């Protein structure tokens, strides 16, 4: 059984362009009975910013945590378990104000756990998640891929590498707010790439 964790982050739910791209990909593989898809919508999850209290809870031995710390640690523990259980991670990522959605950042903040998903060594950090791949579906109003203004691609690669995921594919739909013709072309190109990926 292959487990896929699909993480959505559009403010527009299933109508979001990034959600539509990711769901196009998922629709091509979900009939396969050997594939199980878990969906998480971090926009509706509405995790708060990471706090000092929450980090403190992580650093307190599980047996020593008080009731409030147990609840705080559980937020990240549950997310990490979901990520660990996945063979492939799908990220549906809109560009909002030149970066990833803050809801997705809040989710990532619960995934990066020293000693659990990465460790520090004398030669630098080492990711502890093994044998996972990731596919990113990026939707943008403007055009950024390959330019210095694409903050998302290097950030996502770096974050995923940091926790041990280096097999990463990107599908872009760009210029979606630059007129109908450009938007149609962007979706057609993304759709072709999705067909390529699902035929692999
Ligand atoms: C709050 C907000 C901020 C945005 N900021 C940017 C931006 O910085 N750059 C850009 O190219 N498009 C920007 N857009 C346009 C979105 O990237 C575009 O509509 C994309 O399709 C959103 O993905 P979604 O439909 O999955 O939410 C922004 C849209 C919103 C709602």
TrEMBL record:
<comment type="similarity">
    <text>Belongs to the azoreductase type 1 family.</text>
</comment>
<feature type="domain" description="Flavodoxin-like fold">
    <location>
        <begin position="2"/>
        <end position="196"/>
    </location>
</feature>
<comment type="function">
    <text>Also exhibits azoreductase activity. Catalyzes the reductive cleavage of the azo bond in aromatic azo compounds to the corresponding amines.</text>
</comment>
<keyword id="KW-0288">FMN</keyword>
<dbReference type="GO" id="GO:0009055">
    <property type="term" value="F:electron transfer activity"/>
</dbReference>
<feature type="binding site">
    <location>
        <begin position="95"/>
        <end position="98"/>
    </location>
    <ligand>
        <name>FMN</name>
    </ligand>
</feature>
<comment type="subunit">
    <text>Homodimer.</text>
</comment>
<dbReference type="GO" id="GO:0010181">
    <property type="term" value="F:FMN binding"/>
</dbReference>
<dbReference type="InterPro" id="IPR029039">
    <property type="entry name" value="Flavoprotein-like_sf"/>
</dbReference>
<dbReference type="InterPro" id="IPR023048">
    <property type="entry name" value="NADH:quinone_OxRdtase_FMN_depd"/>
</dbReference>
<dbReference type="InterPro" id="IPR050104">
    <property type="entry name" value="FMN-dep_NADH:Q_OxRdtase_AzoR1"/>
</dbReference>
<dbReference type="GO" id="GO:0016652">
    <property type="term" value="F:oxidoreductase activity, acting on NAD(P)H as acceptor"/>
</dbReference>
<keyword id="KW-0520">NAD</keyword>
<dbReference type="Pfam" id="PF02525">
    <property type="entry name" value="Flavodoxin_2"/>
</dbReference>
<feature type="binding site">
    <location>
        <position position="10"/>
    </location>
    <ligand>
        <name>FMN</name>
    </ligand>
</feature>
<dbReference type="GO" id="GO:0016655">
    <property type="term" value="F:oxidoreductase activity, acting on NAD(P)H, quinone or similar compound as acceptor"/>
</dbReference>
<comment type="function">
    <text>Quinone reductase that provides resistance to thiol-specific stress caused by electrophilic quinones.</text>
</comment>
<keyword id="KW-0560">Oxidoreductase</keyword>
<protein>
    <recommendedName>
        <fullName>FMN dependent NADH:quinone oxidoreductase</fullName>
        <ecNumber>1.6.5.-</ecNumber>
        <ecNumber>1.7.1.17</ecNumber>
    </recommendedName>
</protein>
<dbReference type="InterPro" id="IPR003680">
    <property type="entry name" value="Flavodoxin_fold"/>
</dbReference>
<keyword id="KW-0285">Flavoprotein</keyword>
């Amino acid at each position: 059984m292959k487990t896929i964790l699909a993480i959505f982050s559009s403010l527009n739910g299933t109508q979001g362009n990034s959600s539509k791209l990711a769901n196009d990909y998922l629709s091509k593989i979900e009939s396969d009975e050997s594939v199980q898809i878990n969906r998480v919508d971090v926009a509706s999850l509405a995790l708060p910013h990471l706090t000092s209290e929450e980090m403190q809870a992580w650093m307190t031995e599980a047996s020593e945590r008080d009731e409030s710390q147990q609840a705080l640690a559980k937020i990240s523990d549950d997310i990490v378990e979901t990520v660990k259980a996945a063979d492939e991670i799908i990220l549906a990522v809109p560009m909002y104000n030149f970066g990833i959605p803050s809801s997705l950042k809040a989710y990532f903040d619960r995934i990066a756990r020293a000693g659990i998903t990465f460790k520090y060594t004398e030669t630098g950090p080492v990711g502890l998640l093994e044998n996972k791949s990731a596919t990113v579906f990026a939707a943008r109003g403007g055009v950024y891929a390959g330019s210095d203004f694409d903050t998302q691609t290097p950030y996502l690669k770096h974050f995923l590498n940091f926790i041990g995921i280096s097999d990463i594919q990107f599908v872009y739909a760009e210029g979606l707010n630059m007129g109908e013709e450009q938007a149609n072309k962007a979706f057609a190109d993304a759709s072709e790439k999705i067909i390529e990926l699902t035929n692999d």
